[in-house]
Amino acid sequence: MKKFASVLLAAVLLLSCLTGCGSDENTVTVASKQFTESILLGEMYAQLIEAHTDLKVERKLNLGGTSVCMPAMQNGEIDIYFEYTGTAYNEILDQELLPGMTADEILEAARTGLAEQENVTMFDPLGLNNTFALAMKTDRMEELGVETVSDLAPVSGDLTFGANHVFYTRVHDGYDGLVATYGLNFADALRMDSSLLYEAADAGELDVIIVYATDALLRRYDMTCLVDDQALFPPYHGAPVCRNEVLEAHPELSDVLNTLAGAVDDVTIQELNYQVDVEQRAVEDVAKEFLTEHGYI
Q1: What gap in Å lies between CA 35 and CA 38, rounded to an integer?
Q2: Are strands 160-163 and 223-225 parallel, antiparallel or unpaired?
Q3: Residue 280 and residue 278: Cα distance in Å, rounded?
């Protein structure tokens, strides 16, 4: 009876391995953060992988911020997502931005740190620099006579600030770093989804909001970014990151993940974001059209 049980157990384990253990070996998981640009770029890379390799792609787009995506990558739950050099340097590697550091220095520090500490490769940047920025309605800025973030300090007590939840969780260049660096004391600081911030500012419910420099909605709502004159926000040059274990198993991914290097600048990504956010086009369609028109797929 024991011998039969052992044989049965072995058979079950073998069947499980055949049906489960190898089921993911030809599948990679592409994730994204929870804002349009990240979702759009995640979809682009998913389509590139499907077009140029024999791999299947599982999409986990709109997953969450860096505090969600990087732990998921560390746990092997996702394989690829689109990250920014400033975020990698500040948030993942917990390194303080030093005065005078160039974008190239931050890129190399981020790339080296991710490789050594996380066993992750950061590929070549696309060209866009989606740094954080504080924005206001253009007419409101003119009314207050402010152009830089430092200009806000004497009037911040009369202003309401708004940002998404992720900004409040960032250690160095989030809300706490902002108010400490610039000596700000807003009358109120609200949290809301990124998609609602612009509407609230347009309605006069918020005076200052946190935005990404490549946001399409800046154009739609006639908003202007304040100059970050104390250089709180480091460069955020975007690039795909991938687990080295996955690259070792599928070396063909390396060329694919560098396909868009230097090919997507701020103007280009803002236009693509605009098509999704303002024109309400499907992310899949916008991604496919761009890749097709430029001969990438």
Answers
A1: 6
A2: unpaired
A3: 5
Find where tokens 């924005």 sit. Answer: 135
Handedness of CA 93, 99, 101, 103 (dihedral sign): positive
Query: Do 296 and 260 touch, CB atoms closer than 8 A?
Result: yes
From the list 166, 216, 173, the residue with the least C-alpha distance to 37 is 216
Helix (H), strand (E) at residue 60: strand 56-60
What's the DSSP call for residue 69?
H
Q: First-to-last CA distance in the chain?
A: 59
Per-residue pLDDT averaged across 160-168, rounded? 94
Q: What is the DSSP letter of 237?
A: B
- Does pLDDT of 16 surpass 70? no
Question: How would DSSP label each residue in 19-37?
Answer: IIITTTTTEEEEE--SSHH
- Per-residue pLDDT band at 123 (split at 50, 70, 90): very high
CA distance 151 to 248: 51
Mean pLDDT confidence for 264-280: 92
CA atoms in the 13 A half-sphere facing the CB of 240: 32
For 175, the enclosing helix (H) or strand (E) is helix 175-182
Q: Which long-range contacts (CB under 8 A, 24 or more apart) does 182-186 make?
A: 182/149, 182/150, 182/152, 182/153, 182/230, 182/232, 183/153, 184/152, 184/153, 184/156, 185/156, 185/157, 186/156, 186/157, 186/159, 186/160, 186/161
> Which pLDDT band, with edges at 50, 70 and 90, does 239 fall under?
very high
* Residues near 115 by beta carbon (within 8 Å), at least 6 away in sequence: 121, 122, 244
Q: Which backbone phi and psi does 197 adopt, to 5 degrees?
A: -60, -45
DSSP for residue 293: H
No. of helices (H) and no. of strands (E), the chain: 14, 10
For range 13-20, the mean pLDDT = 37
